């Protein structure tokens, strides 16, 4: 009995560390969202703020250029560490870094060419900014995103070394400092271009900090990166789970940035600004669910690598229970307090839409019923079907929303579509037996 109690205590302590770091990450995210919306509305106004949301949505698609290599390589690094295989750890790190750089910077060049050869100002219906200013803002955000993706490899090293909590803390304290400096620059300059360039310069500095931190836990880090040789067998083994892992983030991008673009073009920047605020509140619930699920993520990987089925069952069941409990509690709280929160947060700039807001919040509750199962599958590279399903549903949502928007001229359609996506994912998740 004492051994069992000690075993559970060790499991909980490790998860608590991860949960604490993830909670800190969500606190940073919530703080940024709470401060940025009213501040940017004050500095730029509804029209220009809506255009910032629209412009910042475009470079987000660059995040798919690494084909999920960083995520899956992080899993492989953790599995190699769990088995004590230093040679495999170095091999995965080297190939992941080279492949990420090749893909990310190659696609970035294509993005930049499109920005300067086309006219994004006209294509995106931007009215408050000049043509060249739009191009420079987009270019800065593209380069910011590319550097962030490469930097993700060094965060994967920390997770692979069992330092998930430390890596998460470092990444988010960096993000918090970055935001404070950027928002100060925006307040001082009243310029979206200065804001975008500030993001880029700070990200370069932060990436060097990540390299230094990763090298403390992996002394052979720089030596591994200096050996530019691809391992074809490893690349092939990583390819399928890497590409399929992009289904979820790509589906999210379609649901978030894709919908933002359609709303901005069809309804205008003012409507986009209001909808974005409604969805930020609903996404806060999802972020809390993510905090719980991701706290168990690294431990699931290590337990799987050590073939410890007892730990696997423990982590997955606890993750599912906590995720659902948190989501339902948040939904009930927002049902009562959201109107007050919205008025206080936006200084009465954004009107409260009871039906639309609660449909978005309901989609977050349904999301909680299946996301922990997906996270567990992703942690051991067995997520292919779920990722593909989510991507297909997201694409169908965009097609349906864009088609029906011109008929009904209502944002309720998109909220209903999001609920349908979450419900189908829940049905799929409930029918899948993750561990026998």
Automatic annotation (TrEMBL):
<keyword id="KW-1133">Transmembrane helix</keyword>
<keyword id="KW-1003">Cell membrane</keyword>
<feature type="transmembrane region" description="Helical">
    <location>
        <begin position="95"/>
        <end position="118"/>
    </location>
</feature>
<feature type="transmembrane region" description="Helical">
    <location>
        <begin position="410"/>
        <end position="427"/>
    </location>
</feature>
<feature type="transmembrane region" description="Helical">
    <location>
        <begin position="321"/>
        <end position="346"/>
    </location>
</feature>
<protein>
    <submittedName>
        <fullName>Membrane protein involved in the export of O-antigen and teichoic acid</fullName>
    </submittedName>
</protein>
<feature type="transmembrane region" description="Helical">
    <location>
        <begin position="194"/>
        <end position="213"/>
    </location>
</feature>
<dbReference type="InterPro" id="IPR050833">
    <property type="entry name" value="Poly_Biosynth_Transport"/>
</dbReference>
<feature type="transmembrane region" description="Helical">
    <location>
        <begin position="384"/>
        <end position="404"/>
    </location>
</feature>
<feature type="transmembrane region" description="Helical">
    <location>
        <begin position="352"/>
        <end position="372"/>
    </location>
</feature>
<feature type="transmembrane region" description="Helical">
    <location>
        <begin position="21"/>
        <end position="46"/>
    </location>
</feature>
<keyword id="KW-0812">Transmembrane</keyword>
<feature type="transmembrane region" description="Helical">
    <location>
        <begin position="169"/>
        <end position="188"/>
    </location>
</feature>
<keyword id="KW-0472">Membrane</keyword>
<feature type="transmembrane region" description="Helical">
    <location>
        <begin position="257"/>
        <end position="278"/>
    </location>
</feature>
<feature type="transmembrane region" description="Helical">
    <location>
        <begin position="134"/>
        <end position="157"/>
    </location>
</feature>
<feature type="transmembrane region" description="Helical">
    <location>
        <begin position="52"/>
        <end position="74"/>
    </location>
</feature>
<dbReference type="GO" id="GO:0005886">
    <property type="term" value="C:plasma membrane"/>
</dbReference>
């Amino acid at each position: 009995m004492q051994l069992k109690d000690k075993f559970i205590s060790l499991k909980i302590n490790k998860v608590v560390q991860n949960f604490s770091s993830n909670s800190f990450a969500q606190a940073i995210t919530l703080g940024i969202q709470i401060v940025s919306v009213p501040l940017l509305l004050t500095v730029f106004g509804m029209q220009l703020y809506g255009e910032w949301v629209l412009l910042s949505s475009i470079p987000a698609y660059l995040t798919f250029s690494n084909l999920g290599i960083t995520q899956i390589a992080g899993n492989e690094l953790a599995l190699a560490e769990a088995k004590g295989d230093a040679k495999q750890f170095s091999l995965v790190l080297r190939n992941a870094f080279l492949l990420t750089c090749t893909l990310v910077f190659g696609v970035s060049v294509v993005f930049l060419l499109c920005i300067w050869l086309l006219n994004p100002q006209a294509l995106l219906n931007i009215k408050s900014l000049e043509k060249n200013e739009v191009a420079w803002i987009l270019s800065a955000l593209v380069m910011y995103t590319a550097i962030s993706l490469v930097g993700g490899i060094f965060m994967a090293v920390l997770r692979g070394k069992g330092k998930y909590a430390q890596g998460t803390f470092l990444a988010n304290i960096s993000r918090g400092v970055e935001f404070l400096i950027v928002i100060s620059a925006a307040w001082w300059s009243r310029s979206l271009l200065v804001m975008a360039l500030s993001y880029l310069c700070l990200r370069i500095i932060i990436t060097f900090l990540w390299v230094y931190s990763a090298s403390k836990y992996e002394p052979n880090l720089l030596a591994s990166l200096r050996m530019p040789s691809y391992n074809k067998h490893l690349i092939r083994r990583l390819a399928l789970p890497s590409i399929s892992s992009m289904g979820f983030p790509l589906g999210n991008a379609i649901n978030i940035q894709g919908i933002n673009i359609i709303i901005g073009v069809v309804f205008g920047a003012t409507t986009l600004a209001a909808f974005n605020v409604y969805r930020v509140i609903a996404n806060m619930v999802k972020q809390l669910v993510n905090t719980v699920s991701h706290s168990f993520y690294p431990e699931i990987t290590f337990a799987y690598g050590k073939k410890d089925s007892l730990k696997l069952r423990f982590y997955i069941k606890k993750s599912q229970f906590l995720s659902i409990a948190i989501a339902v509690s948040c939904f009930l709280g927002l049902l009562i307090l959201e109107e007050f929160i919205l008025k206080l947060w936006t200084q009465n700039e954004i009107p409260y839409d009871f039906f639309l807001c609660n449909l978005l919040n309901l989609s977050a509750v349904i999301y909680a019923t299946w996301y922990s199962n997906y996270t567990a599958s992703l942690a051991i590279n067995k997520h292919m079907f779920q990722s593909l399903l989510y991507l297909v549903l997201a694409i169908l949502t965009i097609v349906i929303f864009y088609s029906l928007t011109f008929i009904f001229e209502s944002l309720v359609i998109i909220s209903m579509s999001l609920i349908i996506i979450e419900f189908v994912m829940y049905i799929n998740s409930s029918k899948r037996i993750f561990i026998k």
